[in-house]
Write a structure and sequence with these properties.
seven-stranded antiparallel sheet
Length: 146
């Protein structure tokens, strides 16, 4: 899996879905926009429904519920992680990243544009609060945008 850089300050959910789906940011953004999902909508990074619906449109299933982060070794082979979690005016916000384990190697795809390397292995510096398991086997092909 390859990182996709978010092209908007608040586009981490779109970029994470693009990375998991193997698509460009712009193609995924168009699909999201056609679904009424926009990067500047704070709900994209304060509600899990938007990224779940986008991934579903791309033919990718996610687990029904979020799981608390208890350690890197307990993560599935692919997961959306909520990092930089914070509370603002009583509402929860976070930055979406993608955890990947493949070929006995683990890494995090972080879409933040200002990073020198968007493939992160500095697990001690990344502080996930919780995660959503991503189910990659038996993927259905992406739905065509309307």
């Amino acid at each position: 899996m390859k990182p996709v850089i978010q092209e908007e300050k608040t586009g981490c959910g779109i970029a994470s879905a693009a990375a998991i789906g193997g698509l460009s940011y712009n193609k995924t953004k168009k699909i999201a926009n056609d679904m009424g999902i926009f990067a500047d909508d704070q709900a994209l990074w304060s509600d899990t429904d938007y990224v779940r619906r986008l991934l579903s449109k791309l033919g990718i299933r996610t687990a029904i519920s979020e799981k608390p982060f208890t350690g890197w070794e307990h993560l599935p082979d692919c997961a959306l992680l909520a990092i930089k979690w914070h509370n603002r005016s009583g509402k929860q916000f976070w930055h979406w990243v993608v955890f990947v384990r493949e070929n006995s190697e683990s890494y995090v795809l972080d879409s933040k544009k200002s990073l020198r390397n968007n493939i992160r292995k500095d697990f001690g510096r990344i502080k996930p609060k919780w995660f959503i398991p991503v189910i990659l086997e038996n993927r259905k092909p992406p739905s065509k945008p309307n």
